[in-house]
Amino acid sequence: MSMTLWGQRASNFDIEELCNINDGKPVPVLFVGCLMKTFRGQDYISGSAASKWYFNPDIPEVSAFSNRLSNERIHINHLPPPPPPNQPQQPQSMPQQEISYLADLQRIDPYDFPTNGCLCTVTIARLIADAPWWFPSCTRCGKACTVEGNTFRCYQCDCSNYKYK
């Protein structure tokens, strides 16, 4: 399985030292607290701050696994570092996306989302520092609900069912 490291984990990782310790042979690694995922047909492991890895752990399963791979060698593909910030990066080509408006996105069923995604440009005109970023929203029409007694009601469609957005 290929392994890609990002950020601080990549900066602090010394593959040459690990290969020297293991004489250029494959290094068994035990990953804990990771999720197995697939992206564009490739399997990968997704980790977080809670994830841990252990190189050459001293457990019977690793010994048996290492014995099967004793004649194989490690192939390391070092990628070049990203260009310095003062050089403009080339934009990546993206698949053609459907142009949508915010009202379209409010009505869309998340399970019927366009295959290539959609493009929605939003301009934030202002931010109110002391106002919350969420509000009670009508589950029928998506408009904001107002307080009515100890609950909320949408006066647009006279519905009392709401969720926070």
Q: Determine Rg (CA atoms, Å).
A: 26 Å
Number of alpha- plus pi-helical segments? 4
- What percent of residues are in strands? 15-25%
Task: Tell me the strand order in the biggest sheet.
Answer: 1-4
Top keywords for this entry?
165 residues; NA-bd_OB-fold
How would you describe what is shown here?
This protein has 165 residues and is of the alpha+beta class. It has 3 domains: 7-68, no CATH class; 96-124, no CATH class; 134-165, no CATH class. 17% of the residues lie in helices and 21% in strands. The protein has helices spanning 7-12, 15-21, 60-68, 102-107, and strands spanning 29-32, 35-39, 42-46, 52-55, 98-99, 118-119, 136-138, 146-148, 151-153, 162-164. The strands form 5 sheets. The protein has a two-stranded antiparallel ribbon. Strands 2-3 form a two-stranded antiparallel ribbon. Strands 5-6 form a two-stranded parallel sheet. The radius of gyration is 26 Å and the shape is elongated. The relative contact order is 0.09. The mean pLDDT is 77.
Topology overview:
Layout: H1 7-12, H2 15-21, E1 29-32, E2 35-39, E3 42-46, E4 52-55, H3 60-68, E5 98-99, H4 102-107, E6 118-119, E7 136-138, E8 146-148, E9 151-153, E10 162-164
Parallel strand pairs: 5-6
Antiparallel strand pairs: 1-4, 2-3, 7-10, 8-9
